[in-house]
C-alpha cells in the first residue's frame, strides 16, 4: 500500500476511533464488610439511577461518561466504610448534549446501614430505595427531574430525609414505606408531588416548602392527618378535600381522633397551587 493510500485509510478511520473513544464504561464492585456504609455522590450533570443490589453486601457502581469532558474519581475507604463518587464535568451542557450525558447506576447492598448523600447540579435522578437499610438520605439537585420512591418498606428507622431541588419536577412516592420520623422537602421552582402511601407510616412529621409552582400532596385515607398551611398572600391557591375540618390554625382529617397512624404536615405554599388529595 502506498503512503498516499495509507493516509486516506487513516483519515477515514480517525473519526470512527475518536467517536468510540469518547464514551468510557467503568464498573466497580465493593464488598461491604462494615455494619454501616456512607456514600457521598457529587455530579455536575447527567443521569443517576439508584436501586437495590442483588447481593446483601455488594455495592456496584456502573458508569458511562465522555472521556474528554469528565474527570471521574471513585474512592472507597474500607476502614471507615466511606464511598465517594465524583464526576466533574464543567463544560458539558445537559440540554445540548444529553445523548452523551454521564450516567451512573448505583446498586446498594441491603445488609449495612446506609447514609446516602447526593449533590447534583443538573440532570435526571431516579432513586428506588425500597427494601434497603437507609438511615440518612439527602438529595440536593440544582436543576432537573428528581424521583424518589420506596416500593418496599425500608428495613430500619430513618433518622433524616432531606430533599431540596431548586428548579424542576420532583416526585416523592410511597413515603409511608420510608419509615422516617421527620422529613424536610423543598422545591424552589417547578412541580412537586408527595405521596405518603406505604405500610409503615406511624408518627411522622414532614415540612414541605414550594416557592413557585404546583404542589400535589397525597395522603392515605386510613392515616390520621393534621395540616398547617402558610400561604403567600392571595397568590397561593389551596384546595382541600371535604375530608378535612378546620380547627383554629390546623386542618384535621375526619379520622384524626380514631387512627393510631399519625401524619403531621407543615406546608409553606408560595406562588402557585397546592392540592391535597385523599386516596
Number of strands: 17
Low-confidence stretches: 1-21
Overall geometry comes to globular
Oligomeric status = single chain
Which structural class do the helices and strands define? mainly beta
The major pleated sheet works out as: 17 strands, mixed
Q: What gyration radius follows from the Cα positions, in whole Å?
A: 23 Å
Mean pLDDT: 86
Count of alpha/pi helices: 1
Helix content: under 10%
Distance between the termini: 75 Å
Strand content: over 45%
Layout: helices, strands, pairs:
Blueprint: H1 3-22, E1 23-31, E2 36-43, E3 46-52, E4 58-66, E5 71-77, E6 82-88, E7 103-108, E8 113-128, E9 134-149, E10 160-173, E11 182-195, E12 203-219, E13 224-231, E14 236-239, E15 244-247, E16 250-253, E17 262-278
Parallel strand pairs: 2-6, 2-8, 3-7, 3-8, 8-9, 9-10, 10-11, 11-12, 12-17, 13-17, 14-17
Antiparallel strand pairs: 1-4, 4-7, 5-6, 13-16, 15-16
Q: Care to describe what's here?
A:
This protein is mainly beta and 279 residues long. The chain is 7% helix and 60% strand. It is globular, with a radius of gyration of 23 Å.
Amino acid at each position: 500500500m502506498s503512503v498516499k493510500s495509507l493516509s486516506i485509510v487513516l483519515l477515514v478511520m480517525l473519526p470512527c476511533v475518536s467517536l468510540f473513544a469518547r464514551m468510557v464504561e467503568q464498573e466497580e464492585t465493593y464488598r461491604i464488610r462494615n455494619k454501616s456504609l456512607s456514600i457521598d455522590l457529587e455530579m455536575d450533570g447527567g443521569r443517576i439511577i439508584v436501586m437495590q443490589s442483588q447481593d446483601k453486601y455488594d455495592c456496584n457502581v456502573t458508569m458511562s461518561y465522555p472521556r474528554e469532558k469528565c474527570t471521574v474519581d471513585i474512592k472507597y475507604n474500607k476502614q471507615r466504610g466511606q464511598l465517594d463518587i465524583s464526576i466533574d464535568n464543567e463544560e458539558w451542557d445537559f440540554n445540548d448534549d444529553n445523548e452523551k450525558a454521564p450516567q451512573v447506576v448505583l446498586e446498594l447492598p441491603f445488609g449495612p446501614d446506609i447514609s446516602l448523600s447526593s449533590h447534583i447540579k443538573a440532570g435526571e435522578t431516579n432513586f428506588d430505595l425500597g427494601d434497603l437499610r437507609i438511615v440518612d438520605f439527602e438529595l440536593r439537585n440544582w436543576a432537573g427531574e428528581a424521583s424518589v420512591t420506596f416500593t418496599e418498606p425500608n428495613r430500619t428507622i430513618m433518622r433524616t430525609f432531606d430533599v431540596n431541588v431548586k428548579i424542576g419536577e420532583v416526585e416523592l412516592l410511597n413515603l409511608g414505606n420510608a419509615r422516617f420520623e421527620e422529613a424536610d422537602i423543598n422545591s424552589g421552582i417547578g412541580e412537586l408531588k408527595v405521596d405518603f402511601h406505604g405500610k409503615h407510616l406511624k408518627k411522622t412529621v414532614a415540612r414541605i416548602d414550594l416557592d413557585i409552582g404546583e404542589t400535589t400532596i397525597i395522603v392515605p385515607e386510613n392515616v390520621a392527618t393534621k395540616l398547617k398551611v402558610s400561604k403567600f398572600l392571595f397568590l397561593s391557591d389551596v384546595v382541600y378535600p371535604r375530608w378535612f375540618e378546620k380547627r383554629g390554625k390546623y386542618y384535621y382529617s375526619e379520622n384524626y381522633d380514631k387512627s393510631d397512624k399519625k401524619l403531621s404536615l407543615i406546608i409553606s405554599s408560595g406562588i402557585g397551587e397546592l392540592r391535597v388529595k385523599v386516596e
